[in-house]
Amino acid sequence: MTHRPVRVERDALGEREVPAEVYWGIHTLRALENFPLTGRPVHPAWVRALAEVKLAAARANTELGLLDPEVGRAIAAAAAEVAAGALADQFPVDALQGGAGTSFNMNMNEVLANRALELLGEPRGRYDRIHPIEHVNRCQSTNDTVPTALRIAAIRLVRRLTEDLAELQAAFQAKEAAFAGIQKLGRTQLQDALPMTLGQEFGAWAEGIARSRRRLEDAEDRLRVVNLGGTAIGTGVGAAPGFAARALHHLREVTGLPLARAENLVDATQNTDVLAEVSGLLKACAAGLVKIAFDLRLLSSGPRGGLGEIRLPAVQAGSSIMPGKVNPVIPEAVTQVAYQVMAADTAITLAAQAGQLELNPFLPLIGDSLLRSLEALSAAVRIFRVRCVEGIEADPEQCRRHLERSAAPEAALVGEIGYEAALERVRAKLSQG
After folding, report:
1. pLDDT band of 418, cuts 50, 70, 90
2. What totals of helices (H) and strands (E) does the chain contain, helices first?
3. What residues pair up with 394 in beta bridges, in sequence order?
4. 292-to-164, 168, 208, 362 alpha-carbon distances in Å
5. Residue 433: what pLDDT?
6. pLDDT at 379
7. C-beta separation of 52 from 149 below 8 A
8. Of 78, 203, 379, 404, which sits 20 to 30 A from 84 (CA to CA)?
């Protein structure tokens, strides 16, 4: 029987054997045993951002004389590699975990310590040379590094989503211009209402998308405020004088983001309301997308037994038993993503209000739900534009037929001939069938 080589590591609870080939250590091993929950690791955007936080901290600690320059450079080099996507398989800790993200932070500390040791020609696990806590985590706590990294990851994904929303908005505006001359029947409560143009309908959808985009853009001002340097509860205990300012300076350089230090670090460590706010904006965006998706399904219904005023692109066969059937699968898929975002917002809301006193221990749920909602919504917006909206065609004749058969033209005369006279015309027209 072949035995895998191991190394022995120790923590406050005792000694454990860790596979010799991995970069993580005993803290990660215990997390793997304690939290076999979703089978899904921490979001890659969060991993990248935490590595950038560690890179900035290593540079600050080296400048302050708190790390030997050779050690500091090795930790920074390891962090830069992870931030660039290296060693991605060395972050196996489950997305959901107890401890407010301590397991995630220690997973990162251990990977960086062992990679830094390797860069110096030392064996993994030689923590007397580079220690995950004493060196990699110097002047830091899970409670300031992990939330700071989450905000960085969120800003990047929010920016990606707003770019996708801008492109979707432009696609609707292009159809608004293309369909500006097509008269059609407007409907309220699924009943005939007043005349409008098909372009006006698409223009309204474009404006709704624009509103969601602007809200998310505004939220970046609050996301960029971080609590790095606050350590465990926002008091800064354990951080050297000057660390917070230097680390934040380097973090701005590393990320290219206009990050700012929170004025009240205790508040910034306790509360996650900004993350709940962003989640709420995603929910509002998702609700708007569902409304548009439903409208497109209604207007394209048919092709003979429905409204049939527009045609959605045929992207796949719609039935295994009904020949020629084509379903509005893209709006349906977008709707499902939107519902998932709404459900995640409920989880984030519950977790955000459940923090007690100086810390919210449910940050792993908040972060995982928020980042995955951002990523999924971006993907949904992109396929909505590319696979559906850009290829929509109008049926002007069908639009005209519905308008002419309705009482909408007569109803539109209320301002000219009065309500009662218009009512008589409507009754006369409808009585003719």
Report:
1. confident
2. 15, 8
3. 310
4. 16, 12, 9, 34
5. 64
6. 98
7. yes
8. 379
Q: Tell me the Cα Rg of the chain.
A: 28
Number of domain units in the chain? 3
For the chain, first and last CA: distance in Å? 86
**With 90 as the cut, is the pLDDT of residue 413 above it?**
no
Q: Please report how the helices 102-119 and 69-83 are oriented relative to each other, as an axis angle in degrees rounded to 10.
A: 120
The two structure tokens encoding residue 303 = 């092709």
* Residue that is written with structure tokens 């569902």 in the block: 290
Please state, as a whole number, how many other Cβ atoms lie within 10 Å of the Cβ of residue 427: 11
Same domain, 170 and 223: yes
* DSSP SS3 for 226: strand
Joined tokens for residue 335: 């709707």
Cα-Cα-Cα-Cα dihedral sign, residues 256, 261, 267, 273: negative
1 within domain boundaries: no
Contacts of 188 (CB under 8 A, 6+ apart): none
Q: Give the E-state strand segments of 283-402 in sequence order.
A: 310-311, 393-394
Instruction: State if pTM tops 0.85.
Output: yes
Residue 336 counted as domain residue: yes
Do residues 162 and 213 lie in contact, with contact meaning Cβ atoms separated by under 8 Å?
Answer: yes
User: 265 with 408, same domain?
Assistant: no
Collect all residues with Cβ–Cβ distance below 8 Å to 160 and sequence separation of at least 6: 374, 378
Same domain, 207 and 343: yes
Three-state secondary-structure class, residue 261: strand
d(CA 255, CA 177): 40
Pairing relationship of beta strands 225-226 and 260-261 according to DSSP bridges: parallel
Same domain, 115 and 81: yes
Q: What is each CA distance from 164 to 43, 176, 281, in whole angstroms?
A: 20, 18, 15
Domain residue limits at 31: 6-138
300 is catalytic: no
Q: Return the amino acid letter for 84.
A: A
| Pairwise CA distance, residues 165 & 162, whole Å | 5
Indicate which residue of 279, 300, 319, 378 is catalytic: 319
Do 369 and 287 fall within a single domain?
yes
- From CA 432, how far away is CA 427, in angstroms rounded? 9
Task: For residues 384 and 411, state if they share a domain.
Answer: no
